[in-house]
Each structure stands twice: as C-alpha cells, then as structure tokens.
C-alpha cells in the first residue's frame, strides 16, 4: 500500500505518491480546483490506481508554529478526505516546502513558465518525502 501526499493550494492541488515500500516520493500531477469538486473525483481515481492506504496533507503553519486561516482550510480539506475515502489522513507541517521546491527548480534551470506548472507537484513530493523520512527513523 502507498501513501498519497497532497499540497492543497488556493487554485491547485499538488499530488505525489510513495513507492510500495514507503521509502520514496514521486510527483504525480497537479489537479486544478474546480467549483464542482471534480478534484475529489480525480483524487479518488488516484487512490484506487495506486492502492493508497493513507494520505498526507500539507499543513501550512505560520513561522511561529501557529495555524492561520490557510491552515484551517487545509485541516477542513483533510477532514473532508477522511470522511469521503475512509482512510487515515495525516496533517504534516509544510512550512517552506514551496520555497524549497522553487529553489530546486531554479537550481535545475527550469524556466519560470515550466516552474509554475510543476511547483505544486514538487511541493507535494517534498511534503511526502519529509513524512516518509520521519517515519523511517521511528
């Protein structure tokens, strides 16, 4: 069983998945949010396709560790996922993951236009990999 990593943004949802051993995270895609909640249908397809047993949702905390409005939205989304799919959903501190993703893409000399298209997927990958690394040490 695999783990799905999600970077839940205002317009896009970055998605990554672990390998079967839960050692590495690979970026899958960016799902554009729609008013009809079609993104939940796509997430359901990915859960089925990749035999996902748990989901990690990035929790954007403030730098002082508090949870602001953006964090509350992510918490509500995580609850929605857990209620809809009936599998464990964990929140994971995502502070600075988008910054790290941007830096990786700049260092790889990816153009600004291409970075915009993949930044959310890269952030989801970093969130998931951090979660997997933490749990591997336990």
From TrEMBL:
Main localization, broad class: cytoplasm
Keyword Hydrolase attributed: yes
Keywords: Cytoplasm, Hydrolase, Nuclease, Ribosome biogenesis
Pfam family, one: RuvX
Domain YqgF/RNase H-like: 1-101
Major enzyme class: hydrolase
Cell compartment(s), UniProt: Cytoplasm
Keyword Nucleotide-binding carried by entry: no
EC number: 3.1.-.-
Protein's job: Could be a nuclease involved in processing of the 5'-end of pre-16S rRNA.
Protein family according to the UniProt entry: Belongs to the YqgF HJR family.
HAMAP family noted in UniProt: Nuclease_YqgF
Name listed for the protein in its UniProt record: Putative pre-16S rRNA nuclease
Organism from which the protein derives: Paenibacillus yanchengensis
């Amino acid at each position: 069983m695999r783990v799905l990593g999600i970077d839940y943004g205002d317009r896009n949802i970055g998605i990554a998945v672990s390998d079967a051993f839960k050692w590495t995270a690979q970026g899958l895609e960016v799902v554009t949010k729609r008013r009809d909640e079609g993104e939940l249908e796509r997430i359901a397809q990915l859960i089925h396709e990749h035999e996902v047993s748990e989901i990690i949702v990035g929790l954007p905390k403030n730098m002082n560790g508090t949870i602001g409005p953006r964090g509350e939205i992510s918490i509500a989304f995580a609850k929605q996922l857990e209620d809809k799919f009936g599998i464990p959903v964990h929140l994971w501190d995502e502070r600075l993951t988008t910054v790290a993703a941007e830096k990786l893409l700049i260092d790889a000399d990816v153009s600004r236009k291409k970075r915009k298209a993949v930044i959310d997927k890269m952030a989801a990958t970093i969130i998931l990999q951090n979660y997997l690394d933490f749990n591997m040490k336990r």
